[in-house]
Structure formats: structure tokens, C-alpha cells
Amino acid sequence: MAKETKLLKSEETPKLGKTNTKGIKGSETKKLTQSKTRAKKIKHSYNVKDAENSLLLKLKDGDVVIEMLPDVAPNHVARIKELVRAEFYNGLKFHRVIDGFMAQTGCPYGTGTGGSGKKLKAEFNRTPHQRGTVSMARSMFPDSADSQFFICFADCSWLNGQYTVWGQVTSGMEFVDNIKKGTGSNGEVSDPDEIISMSIIADLA
Fold this sequence. Notes:
Elements: H1 2-8, H2 36-46, E1 54-59, E2 62-68, H3 74-85, E3 96-98, E4 102-105, E5 133-136, E6 149-152, E7 165-171, H4 173-177, E8 197-200
Antiparallel strand pairs: 1-2, 1-8, 2-7, 3-4, 4-6, 5-6, 5-7
């Protein structure tokens, strides 16, 4: 427990207050228009189990595939998909990156202080935090996750059961490893890398 407090204590985690949010209206989200035949072809080309629940994360060094886990975190997966289809994540910075630990992104201000404006009830589950695990960032309050998430560089078992795991990198982890690391005391990054784009694989044309 002491290790967890040291790494993700309340002042280090994102504060997702109502005053620092970027609202996403239902009308702004994109609807799935991909044919079943095309979706099947895309699924095969990226070698994913479920194209509707798989993400293509484009980074400066290459493509990363994340398979989402709707069975263990259905509400978080649904919200991530809404935000991805609204192009919320495109261009956002990896504002907090700690070598050997994790890379965090999803703040519209690039500071770790913002979100989309919709906090989510925690869906803590038994899926372990391992290399490539994708999990929600939050403040000290369990039900404070919003749009920010992190990708683990290595096993982080002390986080298990404390943060909502919603995905797993299945290819391109070497490109995640290349995300620019922070040098500040809290992993703050100077001139950070950005998400070029995030897409749901079933939506790709």
C-alpha cells in the first residue's frame, strides 16, 4: 500500500473538476456506418478478436492496437468509444510519463487537470495491471475517472483493484515504449508526445 501512495497519491493524480472540462454532446458522436463485410476485413487485417471493441492508437513511431474489455468494464468501454468517435483524443498530449511505470494522457489541456465532463462510477475488476494494460486515471475518489487513462510499461501489481482496467495493448507496445518520458518529480513532460489519432477499428474506411 505504501508503494501505491508514493506513486499515485492524490496530489499526483488528475483533478477532474467541473470547471475544467470539455463537454461532449451526444449529437457530436459518430455513428458506426461500417458494413459487416468491411468490418470483418478490417478485423482480419489487424488480427483482433472484436473490431467494434478494438482501438487503433496512432503514435509518432507507429500504430498501437488496444483490445478493449467490455466484459469487465462495460461503462468505461462505452464512454471511451463515445469519446473516440467524437475525436476527443486526437492531438492530446502524454502529459505524465514515468519510465518503467506508465504513460498518461486524455486531458484536453495537457496538464492533467481536465476531462470530458462526465465522471464514471468505478468498475474495479480482477484484471491485473501488467505490461500493456490500459487503465483509467483518477483522483483520490474512486468514482472520479473521466477521460484520462494510462498505459503500463511494466507490471504494476500494487494498482490492482484500485483503478479500472478497460483494455490491453495487443500490438505496437514497442511504440508505446518510445513515448517521451517526463523529467519532473511527478513525471511531467516537456514538449510531450501526442496522440496522432484514436479510432475504433470497425469504423476504419
